[in-house]
Amino acid sequence: MNIVFDLDGTICFKGNPVSETILQVLEQAQEQGNKIIFASARPIRDMLPVLDSRFHAYPMIGGNGSLTSERGILTNKTAFSLHQREIINHLLESQNAAYLVDGEWDYSYTGPADHPILSKVDPGNLAKNIPIEQHPSIVKALILFADDMDLFPRELEEIDVVIHRHSEENVLDISPENVDKHTALKMLGIDEYIAFGNDANDIQMFKNARHSVMVGHHDGLAPFASEEITLEGDFEAVIAERIAQLGTVREGSKM
Questions:
Q1: For every residue of 42-110, which 3-state class applies, written as one string?
Q2: How far apart are CA 99 and CA 145, in angstroms?
Q3: Other CB atoms within 10 Å distance of the CB of residue 26
C-alpha cells in the first residue's frame, strides 16, 4: 500500500524534526512492503531538515504539489507562467506585501526577521535568499501580510492559480493552476493510497484517498477525513500506532 504523509502538524510539530518514534514506524511500514511518500507545503529543500538523512531518497512532493523528488533527484516542477508572475509581482508591489517566494531551490523573503515562518525557511542552509526577479521559475508564493489581503484572492481569480488561506498563521498560499498533492501523486504513478494530513492543502489528497487520517481538527478538511486523531496526551504515540496498524493493510483488502 502507498501511504502519504504531510509533515507540519501531521507527523512533525512546532518546526521540530519528525521524532525517532515516528521515523522508526515509517521504516517498519516500508519494510513490510508499503511505499512511504512525504507531501508537504514546504519546498523539497525545506523538507530535508525535518527528516533524517536515511529518508532523503524517499519520494517527496513539495510546494503543495509543484515539486516532486525521487531518489533525491528533482523529477518535476510546475511553475507560474510569465503572465501569472507579472500579475503576482504587481500585487506584491502595489499592496506592500511581505512574502516568501520559492523557486526550484532558492527563495525570496521580504518579511520581518522575527516572523515565525522564517524558522521554517531553509533551516539546513541549503539555498540562497535572492531577489524575486532572479528566479528562473517560481513554484509557490506565500503572502505574510499586505495592505489588503482580501484583494489577492479577488485579483488572482482571473489567472487560474490555486489559493489556500492558512487560518492559524493568517497567510495566503498561492500555487500554479492544477497543482495539488493528489495531482503530484498521479505524476509519481500513485493511484491508490492512504493519506495523513491536517490542513486545507490536503483536501484534494483526502478526497481521492482510499482512507484518510486527519491529525488535529480542521473544519475544511474534516468532511473528507475517514478518521481523526486529536492532539491530546501523547498524541505522537497514537499517530505512530495508527501508522503501524494501517501499514498492515494491503491493496484490495478491507480497511
A1: CCHHHHHHHCCHHHCCCCEEEHHHCEEEECCEEEEECCCCHHHHHHHHHHHHHCCCEEEEECCCCEEEC
A2: 7
A3: 25
Task: Characterise 115 by phi-psi region: left (phi > 0), alpha (psi -120 to 50), beta (else).
Answer: beta
Q: How far apart are CA 243 and CA 4, in angstroms?
A: 11
Classified as helix, coil or strand, 180 is coil
Q: How far apart are CA 17 and CA 4, in angstroms?
A: 17
pLDDT by position in tens, the chain (length 255) = 999 999 999 999 988 999 999 999 999 999 999 999 999 989 999 999 999 999 999 999 998 898 999 999 889 889 999 999 999 999 999 999 999 999 999 999 999 999 888 888 998 899 999 999 999 999 999 999 999 988 998 888 888 898 877 656 678 889 888 889 999 999 999 999 999 999 988 999 999 999 999 999 999 999 999 999 999 999 999 999 999 999 887 665 666
Which one-letter DSSP state was computed for residue 158? G
Q: Which amino acid is at 39?
A: A
The Cα diameter of the chain in Å comes to 54
d(CA 219, CA 229): 14
Side-chain-side CA neighbours of residue 45 (13 Å): 18
Residue 131 CB coordination number (10 Å): 9
Sole residue written with cell 477525513: 225
Does residue 33 come out as left (phi exceeding 0), alpha (psi in the -120 to 50 range) or beta? left
Specify the amino acid at residue 86.
Answer: E
Residues in the chain: 255
